[in-house]
Amino acid sequence: MHDEFQLETRRKLVPAWLLSVSVHLVLLIGISFLAVGPGASSLTEEFARPVGIVLARKSANFEPVYFDETADDPDERDSQADLMADDRSQPSPPASPPESLVLSEFALPKTSDLPLGGISSIDTPRLTVNNSRPKLPGMDESAIIAEEQAKMRAANARGPTTKLSVFGSKEAVGGSFVFLIDRSQSMGGGGLGVLKDAEDELVRVLHGLEAKHRFQVVVYHDKSVYLERRELLPATDANKALVPGFLSTKAAFGATGHESALMSALSLEPDIIFLLTDGGEPALKDQQIRAIVRLASPRTAIHCVQFGSGPLQDSNNFLARLAAATGGEYGYVDVN
Q1: Of 88, 43, 44, nearest to 62 (Cα)?
Q2: What residue spans in the chain does CATH classification 3.40.50.410 cover?
Q3: Dihedral, CA atoms, 214, 329, 321, 252, nearest 10 degrees?
Q4: Residue 320 vs residues 69, 101, 184: alpha-carbon distances, Å
C-alpha cells in the first residue's frame, strides 16, 4: 500500500518538472533573441557595404593620379587625368598684397644729381692735383671716419681757422699749418724739376693767411731745416716775406728721410701738414705709418701731394695710405 502511494506521487511530479524546464527554456531562447537580434543585423549590414577599386597611374610630373570608378568611358578617365596633371603643373597665382602694403612709385636720383667729392674748380698754377682716398690696410680707416676726424680737428683748432688748398687739392681747414717740402735730388733740376713750382705755389697759398693764423715751412732731404726757428710763426707779412729767400737758398740733393721729417713737423702740433714730395725711396712701411698716425692723432691731418712723370702707377702707395689714416687728402701731380 505504501509503495503504490509513492509511485503515484512520482507520476504526478514528473509532468510538473518537465513543464518547469520547458517554460524556462522558452524564456531563455526569447531573451537571447532579443539580446542578439539587433547586433546580428548591424554586423550583417557592416559586411554588406560595397567595396570599390581605386585606379591610379603616374602623371608626367611623377605624381599619382586617381580615377573616378564611376567613369566607365576610358577616354573620360584619360581626360580627367590630363586635367589633374595640368592643374598641378600650373603655378598658383601669387596672392595680391593688401593695398596698405603696396608702395607707391618713386624716382631714383640720377647720377648727375649726386654730389661728387674731389678737387674744387679754382684757378691754380699749371700743375694740378688728381685726388684719391684709399683705405689703409689694418688701420680700420675709412673716408667717412676721416672726414669726421677732420671736422673734429677743425672744431678743436687753436685759434681762428681758415681754408687752404695746394695745387687745387681739396681745401683743408685749420688755424696752424706746416708746409713740408721734399728737397731731395729727385725733386730738383736733375730729377722732376718741380721745386720752383712748389715754391711759387707756397707763396701764393700764404697770401690767404692772416696774422691770427700760424705757419711753418720745413724743407728736408736726409735732414730737416726750419724757417727762422723751430716753432709755429704768426702769419704776419714780415714772416711770410721770408719764405722766398729761404727756399731759394736750399739746394736739392741727398737722400730722402720721410719719417724723420714728418716726426719733426708733428712735434710742432699743427692742425694741418701739407707734404709735397715725389714719394721717392725709401718708402714708408706700414709700421712706420702707424707710428706717425699715433703721433698725429687726434690733432693733425696730413695732406700729401705727390709729384710724378706720367700717369699714377700705384693709387694705394704709402702717401695715399698715410693721408687716409690721418684724415687728410692725397693728390697726384703729373708734371707732364
Answers
A1: 88
A2: 130-334
A3: -60
A4: 83, 48, 20
Q: Which position has the grid cell 532579443?
A: 34
List the pLDDT tens digit at each of the 336 positions of the chain. Answer: 555 555 555 555 556 667 777 777 877 787 776 665 555 444 444 445 555 555 556 555 555 655 555 545 555 555 555 555 555 555 555 555 555 444 444 444 443 343 333 333 333 334 556 654 443 444 444 455 555 655 565 555 566 899 999 998 889 999 999 999 999 888 887 778 888 888 899 999 999 999 999 999 999 988 899 999 999 999 999 999 999 999 888 888 878 899 999 999 999 999 999 999 999 889 999 999 999 999 998 899 999 999 998 999 888 999 999 999 999 999 999 988
Three-class DSSP labels, the chain: CHHHHHHHHHHHHHHHHHHHHHHHHHHHHHHHHHHHHHHHHHHHHHHCCCCCCCEEEECCCCCEEEECCCCCCHHHHHHHHHHHHHHHHCCCCCCCCCHHHCCCCCCCCCHHHCCCCCCCCCCCCCCCCEEECCCCCCCCCCHHHHHHHHHHHHHCCCCCCEEECCCCCCCEEECEEEEEEECCHHHCCCCCCCHHHHHHHHHHHHCCCCCCCEEEEEEECCCEEECCCCCCEECCHHHHCCHHHHHHCCCCCCCCCHHHHHHHHHCCCCCEEEEEECCCCCCCCHHHHHHHHHHHCCCCEEEEEEEECCCCCCCCCHHHHHHHHCCCCEEEEECC
Q: How far apart are CA 36 and CA 103, in angstroms?
A: 74
Q: Where are the beta strands (DSSP E) in 165-287?
A: 172-174, 176-182, 214-220, 224-226, 233-234, 272-277
Contact (CB, 8 A) for 179 and 274: yes
CATH of domain 130-334: 3.40.50.410
pTM (whole model) above 0.85: no
- Three-class secondary structure of residue 230 per DSSP: coil
